[in-house]
Predict the structure of DUF4097 family beta strand repeat protein.
Amino acid sequence: MSERLGVRRGFGSGWLWVLALVALAATQVEAGKRGEPRSDEIPFDWQGEVAAGKWIEVRGINGSIEAVRGEGSEVVVRAIKRGKRDDPGEVDIRVERTAEGVLLCAHYPHPGGGMNEECENQSVQNCDVAVQWRIELPEHVSLAAYTVNGSVSVENAPADVNLVTVNGGITASAAGAAEATTVNGSIEIEMRAMPAEGAGATFTTVNGDITLRVAEHLDANLRARTQNGRINCELPIERSGGSSRRRLAGQLGRGGPPLRLDTVNGSVTIEAL
């Protein structure tokens, strides 16, 4: 009996060791697909000139976007692609010069194979790779930033900003005009100028507060609305008809381009810088 057990133990130990190696290999392969978390990350760097008055446009899906005023004369973009279960190398960041300036877009793989070539029609399709962006803006260059799952933060932008996300908050301060849109998140903006006559500025969210700080003598036609919240305006305003605690319309300063602030579940606050 002991001899048989000894043989079994010897055979079993060797066989279990083989199974362990096979299981480990399978686990490592599966980790690259959907199993254990990965620790992979791939950096991306781009630096180049953008003419004064033009735009740098950044488009992502997963990941936050951060921008600051730079010290040099060129736009500097640093990004990190990270994947928990998917290979960050599957996501390609492409740079394209356009009539408006420069476009940087994160391209995700197509479910059927190959790369999705259309920047505006990207989809993660169960790919969990996130791209974290950081942009340095030179003087007189505007920023357009778009993501789906992530926050957008802009500090002391030298010109105009147009910021969009779906699941995330937006905070920004800009020397020029600003626009911001999200669905699930609050918006906090410092804006020192309005866009050109007729263009206006719009800040919208569904689930979140809106806080807008503007120059005390801003000239604009204001309309602010909420369904579940309050509106507080600390600036002098010549109110028009129909104003209530959930709706405010009127003229700031001498009036001017439309200024729209809309939320569903949240409050609206307008303050002077």
User: Anything to note?
Assistant: Residues 1-31 form one domain.
